[in-house]
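Aim 2, interim progress: modelling of the dioxothiomolybdenum(VI) ion-bound target.
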Amino acid sequence: MKFDTPAGQNHIDQLKVVGRPTDRIDGKYKTTGTAPYAYERHDVAPNAAYGFVLGAGIAKGRVRWIDTAAAKRAPGVLAIVTTLEHPRMERGMMNAAYLFGGDQVQHYHQAIAVVVAETFEQARAAAFLVKVDYASEPGKFDLAAEAKGAPPVPGDSGEGSGGNGEERVGDFEGAFAQAPVRFDETYSTADESHAMMEPHATIAAWDGDKVTLWTSNQMIAWGHGSLAKILGVPKENVRLDSPYVGGGFGGKLFVRADAVLAALAAKAAKRPVKVALTRPLIMNNTTHRPATIQRVRIGATRDGTITSIAHESTSGNLPDGSPETAVSQTKLLYAGANRLTAMKLAHLDLPEGNAMRAPGEAPGLMVLEVAMDELAEKLGMDPVEFRIRNDTQVDPQDPKRSFSHRDLVGCLRLGAERFGWSKRNPKPGQVRDGQWLVGVGMAAAFRNNMVLKSGARVRLDQAGTVTVETDMTDIGTGSYTIIAQTAAEMMGVTIDKVVVRLGDSAFPVSSGSGGQFGANSSTSGVYAACVKLRDAVAQRLGINSADAVFADGQVRSGNRAVPLGDAAAGGALTAEDTIEFGDISKSQQQSTFGVHFVEVGVDAYTGETRVRRMLAVCAAGRILNPKSARSQVIGGMVMGTGAALMEELAVDTKRGFFANHDLAGYEVPVHADIPHQEVIFLDEVDPMSSPMKAKGVGELGICGVGAAVANAIYNATGIRVRDYPITLDKLLDRMPDAA
Ligand code: MOS
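Predicted structure of the complex, ligand included:
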């Protein structure tokens, strides 16, 4: 099905199943331990041996030799594969660093060997007996030191943000110089780790020249193609299966060393092999969100109208890596005739920087929305009103292009009312609650909406069961549930009559999960397949498709009503289709909008920040399942709170690695850090986006929330911290007198 005209009235609009707050189908499996993750697929490979990955002990240079003699003699060892035995292997989709092969070391903990043994403990013990000699070379590890002179380079997050190295509209410098009120500050954000619960893990098994990988991956078709290329095996001989993914956040968009090494190890050991990356290895072997240094300049008239805005970001990456697209939102969020955005890239020899939940917007809004708060104060304006004053209904870089639907103002007004914003004391450091300095802050949320071609197959059997198969993944997001809701709505059955099977490369190629494009794209693919299945049902029953009503498990036409399953009496009916998005997705700007309000308490004696209250209001098209969408948004809010308060990979700038490589040293928020969270969705549809009229929401929740936390800390204490995260050491010596 081609989607190239705005969606009219369709079967989804009935909203009998879609749009209802529905429990996640996989919820009971996840909470009872019966949803097997990749490493736990005992059913498929009961005799799997264990692979333990060895990472390079230097950040840059060459492996001179690897001595495996002692390791080979260790108990239980079945095979050892070293990087020196393989020429450098090809890279897969979006890989900047090489995953294995050859003697070159591009970053610390790049994989150099995998040791296979009967048990995990034996493999680990043997791995420590492997002796390695390196020829180390000096590298560049300090972003601040390399930022000067970093050139502007184009970049694309692959998730809806990006652009040219430098983009200009009007005359920024001239307008800024003449602006009655000027703001100019520089900020920094930290390197962050995805820190998903489930580590990267794969079981690989060969059958002759065919290989199957039970793995944890967000994008099955990418992984399928990439592994075929990396392993040098025809695509038809590779199968990926990833029905449950314990979080990815962008870290599992692409193939990582676990999959490649499991395949190589299984071949060497002549047995299925399972490989999980240990947490210490994940931090430095896989990807991370790159740190940024960002400068924001905004010029405004005294009434708060922005006349000029510039946002420049510098990040680092390996030579083949991309810049963090942290200035993207600034091209679209606020009006202003004179504009400049730039992404600069410094060469660093740290592990590969790549996509992490809302790549670009998450660190970009962390900075832009603090800058907006600072300028509002300078103007003596309420921060909510300042944003409303500078709203735009057209793309500020190309005013002929409108937004398909934009209700940022609606979010701002409703959020302010629900949060009780009018009670805020705009003067910082005024509100005390015992030992706590209390403050409130807000920030806008923004993220582009993206759609990707997505396919599905649906089958109807005689019992009236509808089975959906697509290689779409559920990375903890609720894909199983919204896909079942879509098929149930389309076929006129209850959700328990739908079976959803995901994550297998043998199924039709879907959008996959990422960039908050998965829900809208994949359900649209299911919609398209169900349109075909409805036609097939009508034809089989000898009724006119246009007259057929699918409801209550029946197909009705005139006075005739037959059980849906009767259409499959002569054999199951199958239909397959792919939704393809034509130019419609480019003709107007499709974005999602929101606002975050946060109340914090900062301990007047210790500088410890506790979040007390959070509210998000989101405008993101039709909400397919308010329950799972809310979970996505609150998850994003938690993650953004982590970015604001604690998450930071500490760079050892001498030896070139992230030193805090576990969840004790790399802190993420836990339940005790997060108060009750409230999420409100504006009741809206976007017929330009898809037949579902939905948009992305999975990453909107992280966008801007960190800035709202930072702005609340300022309101509580009067201290403006511009280097994130705001750990208490950055507050302590500037705290107001506590007595
Ligand atoms: Mo993307 S960082 O996988 O949503």
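The chain has three domains: 2-30+451-584, 38-138+195-285, 401-449+590-739. Residues 159, 218, 249-250, 253, 355-357, 359, 514-515, 699 surround dioxothiomolybdenum(VI) ion (CB under 6 Å).
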